[in-house]
Amino acid sequence: MAKAPKAATTKARQLIDGASFGPDALKAIGEAFDTAWAAISANFGNDPIDAEKARLRLAEALLSIADEDSRDVEVLKRAALQRMALDYKRRS
Q1: φ and ψ of 39, to 5 deg
Q2: pTM score, two decimals?
Q3: Where are the alpha helices (DSSP H) in the chain?
């Protein structure tokens, strides 16, 4: 699994941790982020800059689909990965 530099990890995580959700929703969102990243990180190779960009896009995708009632980690993960895939298709 490609690891992002600590600064990238911190920036993506800060984006999630700083979101305006309650503690239960933030916990689920954070877990969904971690499991989603584990599923896709190998797709971004060993370039830390590419990994950083991908982690930030994943965090943004996750926050765009989450709401205060978000608690199901697997649903959040799948929805965020779908959103991220759609965003990539739009850029192509």
Answers
A1: -75, -30
A2: 0.85
A3: 6-17, 23-40, 48-65, 73-91
